[in-house]
Here is the input.
Amino acid sequence: MSKETSVGNDALLRRHGLHVTAQRLAVLRAVTDRSHSTADDICNVVRAEIGAISRQAVYDVLAALTDKGLLRRIQPAGSSARYEDRVGDNHHHLICRACSRMDDVDCAVGDTPCLTAADDSGYEVDEAEVIYWGRCPECVAATSVSSDR
Here is the structure.
C-alpha cells in the first residue's frame, strides 16, 4: 500500500468522525482490495496483514464503516453478507449461481431510475437493491467444455 493511500484513508476516517486505528485501516484496505468479500474473508486478510485481531473486532469495524457510509453491506439471498467500498452511487450486482462470483453493474437506464418506484406508497426512496442471478462467463464456458466431451 502506498503512503498516499494510507494518508487518504486516515483523512477519510477522520472526515467521517472515526478515530484512525490499525484495525480500521486494515479492514478498509482489505475491502478496497477485495470488493464483495465476506467478513470471514476480510478477517483472514486483516490477520495476515496486522496479526492478531478477533473476528468480533472485524465485525465491529465493518459495522462502524458501514454506519458511516464508507462501506456498503450487501446480503444476497442465501449468502453471507459481503462488503464493498463503492458507495457513491446506486449500482446493482450480478451473482453467479455456480461459483458465487459477484460483479458490479450500473443501473440499466440513467443514474438512478430504480429509485423511482411505480408506486412508492408515500415512502421517500433513497436506495434500491437489484440483484441479477445467473452464471458468470467462466462457469458458462466450463459447462460448455464439459458437455462437449
